[in-house]
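Closing statement on the 2BA sub-project.
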Amino acid sequence: MYSFPRDVILNTKIEDLMVSSDKVAHVQIDNPLEHALLVLIKSGYSAVPVLDLSYRLRGIISTTMIMDTVLGIESFEMEKLTKLKVAEVMNPNVPKLKLDADFMRALGLTINHPFVCIEDNEGLFKGILTRRAIIKLFTKNLHK
Ligand code: 2BA
């Protein structure tokens, strides 16, 4: 007998549900803040992963983190956008999982995080698992 949601949780592979790295907007750790803000605004996402040159996850940066950094006491200190690098502002605590992790762990992480970063066993960035993809999966199965 089909038992929802147990079967969905047991049978779903993170790899099948994730947004692959080539479709994920990201910034490099040594990019100036100005570039990160441009990527965030143009992509429309409020936060994106930060990678290094070898495609390893180093953090997450958001529009709020950048605006909070440039916010001075009486005015915005816009020169910080060119002076500071992503590394100085990003949050290095990335919610992340390996490609072959249990889907249940991803489910738990998306309670507090809108997306979870996925890496392979060598630590290379493979993509993200979003709340949207998870809710879509459950909605589809509810209608079965
Ligand atoms: P947010 O940017 O805060 O977006 C919240 C939700 O709004 C997204 O949920 C999505 O449903 C919608 N949304 C926002 N911008 C969108 C856009 N440009 N195109 C289509 N839909 C958009 P999720 O899809 O569950 O994404 C959760 C979070 O994952 C996003 O939060 C964002 O931080 C990140 N994310 C999702 N897709 C991404 C991608 N391709 N590249 C980089 N980051 C992504």
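The longest helix spans residues 131-142. With this model delivered, the sub-project is considered complete and its resources will be redirected to Aim 3.
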